[in-house]
Amino acid sequence: MFYRWGQFAFRFRRIIPLVVVVIILAMHFLFGTKLDQRMSQEGWEDPGADSTTAAVIEQETFGRDNSGDVILVVDAGEGARVTDPEIFHAANNAIGELERTYDKQISHVQSYFASPNQQQITDDGRYAFAAIGLEGDGEQTLKDYRVLEEAAKSIELPGNATLEVAGATAVADALDDGMADDIARAELLGVVAVAIILLFVFGGVVAAAMPLIVGILSIIGGLAILSVIASFFQVNIFSQSVITLLGLGLAIDYGLFMVSRFREELDQRCGADSRSRRLSQSELADAVAVTTATAGKTVFFSALMVGVALSGLFMFPQAFLKSVSYGAIAAVVLAAVISVTVLPALFGMLGHNIDKWSVRRTSRTARKIEDTIWFKVPAWAMRNSRQVIVIVAGGLILLTLPIAGIKLGGINEAYLPPTNQVRQTQDEFNEQFPQFRTDPVKLVVTGATNEQLVDVVMQTREVDGLAAPMSPSTQTVDGTTILSAGLADRDNGKYVIDQLRAIDAPEGVNLYVSGTPAMEVESIEALTEKLPWMALYMVAATFILMTLLFGSVILPIKAVIMNVLGLGATIGFLTLMFVNGFGSEFFNFTPGPLMSPVLVLIIAILYGLSTDYEVFLVSRMVEARDKGATTDNAIKYGTAHTGGIITAAALIMIVVAAAFALSEIVMMKYISFGMIFSLALDATLIRLLLVPAVMHELHDDNWWAPAWVKNIYQKIGDGDSPTADTDFHQREQTQREQTQRERSSLSAEPKMEHAKLAATHARSGVSADDDADLIPFSELIKRIERNQ
């Protein structure tokens, strides 16, 4: 199937890239340019939770609670008071002017300076505030705030007095701006850094450009698809960052594997004449087709497995996770589609010109595969397999132990860096006016008489953990009353919520615990309830796909265990860093609970990426095994041929993730640092040491599968490729004879002439460590066997 697709791509090589580029650009201009207008800040809560029901009751009865949209905090300065006439009148005039100028955006203003309320001023008189309610609802609230934001932040007061902006909408806007900056930074720094790495890996401008083309097209197309989805479903703005991160990283990885395999196919057909001999059209078509049948098939299944892992997010009720899943799956699938359509067509057009504009030339001497680190390290691990398994697996388990101290929470101002002005002002407001926190816990009471309401209020006075006693925030309307109070400790929300849930409701009275803290608690409960099912789904689905790809049931089981070990170690690392605070000062964030929806997202992403690299590594081992290699030789052959590429791919993903590690938004740091740690762990300890050691111990059991699985494996494999199967040995024999003739000729030449010929035949842009790529498979196996 994939071989025939490669032939098709070669046949229509001049049409396919043009069609794909035109479609993606058309999608961008028709839909992608409207993405910003369709993004949402909402979707964090569980729509089926009691707290969401309570919020609906409150909004239908009283309208949206907009009292904490924008908070203007006036600080008179050290030793001064806001009641000083000059400060008082200046603040009153400025806030009044703001209200009059932006009357279409402002619903109401509750200002200490317009109508002094002792609850709105601190005991020492240094701080006072004005609360602004905005007219809009939902996304319109943010738009209204942005209209008046500049004017509010530019207010100046006499002396050392200052006016700063805080509030729920101001915090949301700061988070939004931070994500936009993240995307811009990643697209600039990430692409430039990746281009440099690719240039170093391939040594040529044209070859390095191939993965970049896939990455750029994937981002443009992925965001356009996300815009289409956003016109039908609620899509959180966070999805844009995830698409950029995954789309750019995985697309370039896929391109890297495709380009590497195509160059290898060229080498195998040209042998020592890789510079002087040009392939015929039929040979070039075969090289493109085999590349698609091998690397293309692996890319397809890899993207399928990453997509399956991400599709597990659909199990959760939060719109945030669903929307991120939409975007991430779109980016990954598009990256794979472009890799197996556009790249084979470009390969067909370029041929040997894929090495054009080389910036680095290295001699292609017949250096042995066993001289590379990708051979030596796995070989050492296999010789010391039991010790390696105990040490590496034990180390991963130790890294998992900090998970015992994990804490989960929701989104708030603490996800902004401590240096952010809105964050600082919000912290100051919460400290000076704890009873007016913009995220109070609420108790919605319906159907209560006055006596019953008093009974409920008295029971709330027994609740521990509140910053102040609960009291009605509004007058009773249609039998509905809202009681509210701030939390003394935001991280102690569940303790307070559980006490409120335990209140004995009088007969005929309904009680609903609401407010942001309650929504966070119920969201965490929904996530923890669904998480085991998501894990089971991911494991089962990827197991089935890997079984079909590898033709084995043992290898997928081994892969799942490796993935779980790596994932556990990564979450343990994130707990140490973000909950316990290791590195918080250096990386400019405040330690605290991990945001639960983002943690679920991290699990899906990292499991998918781990499976991705497992597929690329083991597929090459399976390929060697299918061609007659022993288990140990297949392991060595696979790691030697993919070790460098997997390391380069991991490095590229790490560089892209590192661009997001500079984010001001803590939840983006979760993902970026999680990916950096996981990928570094995966490409070193797991793939180079643990996988070879475990497979060596399993030996021939690695390849076991029922006969019916083997039959399916053969049907979806590259059996329709004559070159890939029956013709392989003929091509191998031809290459061996050609190599023997070359050696015979070279042995008769003077040493200087030998060097000149090697330099002439050198293919630019490939390091000496990759020399094994030009050695026929059978010769490689013989060398490996001689060195056992």
UniProtKB/TrEMBL annotation:
Residues 46-376, 476-701 form the Membrane transport protein MMPL domain. Pfam families: MMPL (PF03176). It comes from the Bacteria. Residues 726-756 have a biased composition (Basic and acidic residues). GO terms for cellular component: plasma membrane. Keywords: Cell membrane, Membrane, Transmembrane, Transmembrane helix. Its main location: membrane. Residues 720-769 are annotated as: Disordered. It is found in: Cell membrane. SUPFAM superfamilies: Multidrug efflux transporter AcrB transmembrane domain. It is a multi-pass membrane protein. The chain crosses the membrane at residues 12-31, 188-209, 216-235, 299-320, 326-351, 388-408, 535-557, 564-582, 594-618, 639-662, 668-690. Belongs to the resistance-nodulation-cell division (RND) (TC 2.A.6) family. MmpL subfamily. This is Putative drug exporter of the RND superfamily. It comes from Corynebacterium cystitidis DSM 20524. The lineage of its organism: Bacteria, Bacillati, Actinomycetota, Actinomycetes, Mycobacteriales.
